[in-house]
Specification:
The protein is of the alpha/beta class. It has 2 domains: 64 residues, 5,6-Dimethylbenzimidazole Phosphoribosyltransferase, Chain: A, domain 1 (Orthogonal Bundle); 270 residues, 3-Layer(aba) Sandwich (Rossmann fold), CATH 3.40.50. It has a 6-stranded parallel sheet with strand order 3-2-1-4-5-6, with helices on both faces. Helix 7 packs parallel to helix 13 and helix 11 packs across helix 12. It is globular. The termini are far apart. The structure holds alpha-ribazole-5'-phosphate and nicotinic acid. Alpha-ribazole-5'-phosphate (RBZ) binds next to helix 4, strand 4 and helix 7. It catalyses: 5,6-dimethylbenzimidazole + nicotinate beta-D-ribonucleotide = alpha-ribazole 5'-phosphate + nicotinate + H(+).
Length: 352
């Protein structure tokens, strides 16, 4: 089964490449460590790829699109049909992520992993597991088998992109209601109270926010997801979009491709992936801190610090695409700066 083979092929980072990268970083004509977390990016890229001088040849944001049955409980400001409309719009070049990826010199791959509509649109890959999840306020969102199938969709997509030469991935999603499922999944897995994981998503009144909180609490009480079993949590109170992205994170780790978290939803997927296989964390980078309050709590739980804090809350992969620029700059500085061998200055050493 693809799921098991993927999980079993996730291995640790290449320490030798990391040491060599550190050596080169320390030889660049600058005070030791002065490029801060840009140096951390380079070292981690070297460990992931095994290349001492990593190059970012092909960058792609994978957008997992799916509907969430819980929308019928009034948890989103938008009708469910917006999922299918925006999914189509990704192919028309007019959405936020189209603009962000174009500017970053990156591509998008749009995957229908469970939109409740026949999309039939060039540019949208049809890997529908089912026509949206069921309403988790009335029973499990999906079966365990469906959750695994959706994760396998993400794993397959990553394998296909690897064959096409993609070597930096971003994660994006489109699914009305998915800030509700992300809050549910992350509350259970981090052990935080639902209230502090929930935000207004794409926009809610204060009253509607209270309803969103009580719907999530009810869904958790009803389905009793087991916090020690991340797949159970994903299946009972998650979504096909989150599951697809979880598969992308695990697939990227198995295929040794660096992958960036975007906002709250993709952070919830990364949280599930890390709970399934802790070593996957080595292959995952944060990008921005979403305005959704639960995003910060997930970051704390997985021990990551966002690179950007712009209070964005769009999703689609926009924050990940924005962070591609930081990666480009890190690699450019690392490869284009002179070394102490080139410069006519002594190597700096920190004062004892
Ligand atoms: C036009 C539009 C485009 C979007 N692109 C991403 N989202 C974002 O908002 C949704 C989650 O918010 P909630 O949980 O409140 O429904 C997701 O689809 C997410 O990707 C959008 C939302 C809208 C309305
Ligand atoms: O953090 C995100 O990505 C996000 C937040 C609100 C709505 N949609 C996406």
């Amino acid at each position: 089964m693809l799921f098991d083979t993927t999980i079993n092929s996730i291995k640790g980072l290449d320490n030798e490449a990391m040491e060599k990268a550190q050596e080169r970083l320390d030889n660049l004509t600058k005070p030791l460590g002065s490029l801060g977390r840009l140096e951390w990016i380079i070292k981690k890229l070297a460990g992931i790829t095994g290349e001492v001088i990593p190059s970012l040849r092909k960058k792609t944001v994978v957008i997992m699109c799916a509907d969430n049955g819980v929308v019928e409980e009034g948890v989103s400001s938008c009708p469910k049909s917006v999922t299918s409309t925006v999914t189509r719009n990704f192919t028309r070049g007019i959405t936020g992520i189209n603009v962000f990826t174009k500017h970053a010199g990156a591509d998008i791959v749009v995957v229908d992993v469970g939109v409740d509509d026949e999309i039939n649109c060039d540019g949208v890959i049809n890997r529908k597991v089912k026509m949206g999840t069921d309403n988790m306020a009335k029973g499990p969102a999906m079966s365990r088998k469906e959750a695994i199938k959706a994760m396998e969709v993400g794993m397959e997509i990553v394998e296909e992109l690897k064959l096409k030469g993609v070597n930096l991935l971003g994660t994006g999603e489109m699914g009305i209601g998915n800030t509700t499922t992300s809050a549910a999944v992350s509350a259970v897995l981090t052990g935080n109270p639902v209230e502090i994981m929930v935000g207004k998503g794409s926009g809610l009144t204060n009253e509607a926010l209270l309803n969103k909180i009580s719907v999530i609490k009810h869904a958790i009480e009803l389905n009793k997801p087991d916090p020690k079993d991340p797949i159970d949590v994903l299946a009972k109170v998650g979504g096909l979009d989150i599951a697809g992205l979880t598969g992308c994170f695990l697939g990227a780790a198995a295929n040794r491709i660096p992958i960036l978290i975007d906002g709250f939803i993709s952070a919830a997927a990364a949280l599930v992936a890390i709970n399934i296989k802790p070593e996957a964390k080595d292959y995952i980078f944060p990008s921005h801190g979403s305005a959704e309050p639960g995003s910060k709590k997930i970051m704390e739980n997985i021990g990551m610090e966002p690179m950007l804090n712009l209070e964005m809350r769009l999703g689609e992969g926009t924050g990940a695409a924005l962070a591609f620029h930081i990666f480009d700059m890190a690699v450019t500085a690392y490869t284009k700066m002179g070394t102490f061998n080139d410069a006519t200055i002594e190597k700096y050493h920190p004062l004892e």
